[in-house]
Amino acid sequence: MTTQTDPVAVEGRAPLSREQVLRVAVELADAGGLESLSMRRLAQQLGVEAMSLYHHVRNKKDLLAGMLDLAYAEIETPSGAGDWRDEMRRTAISFHEVLLRHRWACSLLMAPLGVGAAQTRYMDSVLGRLRGAGFSAELTHHAYHALDSHIVGFTLWLLPYLSLAQQQPDLAERFLRELPADELPHLIEHIGVHLAPERPDEVGGFAFGLDLILDGLEAKREAG
Question: What are phi and psi of 57, to 5 degrees?
């Protein structure tokens, strides 16, 4: 059982809380990835003994579950006050941006950590907005999973490319130069599109796929 205050707090220092422990853990993971996060390093960052952390998190798994739930709490959920499609688009983009901000969170989505309070609120809000828009329970089920698969799947696909681009910014250009132009013209054209600067009015790959899904869902909704 976790507690909200630290009974062994150092004199003159405010006692720790579970939220403080989780937020500092998120900061460490944002800076160096999950591989840089240990209970010992987290305790050092907080200025306490490692054993003090166990007043607030049961173990490393509980710590990671709490961190993931903090990430879910950052997602802009639909309010139910506007057009369902616009709201779902904003929510999906917000979720994608949260996962890009906290790149470690994508791997935790695949881990058996349980479901936290912020995640259940997110899920209920999305499901409720779809139902409120007139989707049947069955279509809501499929719509939720289509959207979730795009958000998580696209982000998981994108993250290694972002890391490579940071480590080797000229990798695509070098790869392009090594390809035989007469044998792989369509691949070369495709890579060239990747390398071209985006126009200010251009829709990115994530939003492009998202709009296709939303267009399809709208057609299903109208068909009843």
Answer: -135, 135
Q: How far lies 80's CA from each of 130, 137, 214, in Å?
A: 9, 17, 16
97 belongs to a structural domain: yes
Is 24 in the same domain as 96?
no
pLDDT at 123: 97
Tokens standing for 200? 């200010």
| Same domain as 88, residue 50 | no
- In degrees to the nearest 10, what's the CA dihedral of 118, 123, 124, 128? 140
Q: Are residues 185 and 136 in the same domain?
A: yes
Based on the structure, what is the number of domains in the chain? 2
Grouped pLDDT means (10 residues each) for the chain, 224 residues: 42 74 96 92 92 91 95 94 94 96 92 91 97 96 97 92 69 76 83 71 83 96 84
26 and 124 in a single domain? The answer is no
With beta carbons less than 8 A apart as the criterion, state whether 50 and 37 touch: no
Find the angle CA(60)-CA(66)-CA(68) to the nearest 5 degrees. 105
Residue 22: give its domain's CATH number. Answer: 1.10.10.60
Would residue 66 count as lying in a domain?
Answer: no
Q: How would you label 108-145 residue by residue, b for 16+ Cβ within 10 Å and e otherwise?
A: bbeeebeebebbeebeebbbebbeebebeeebbeebbe
pLDDT of residue 140: 97
Q: What is the DSSP letter of 142?
A: H
220: exposed, middle or buried (Cβ count in 10 Å: 0-12, 13-18, 19+): middle
**Do 31 and 113 share a domain, yes or no?**
no
* Domain range enclosing 191: 77-223
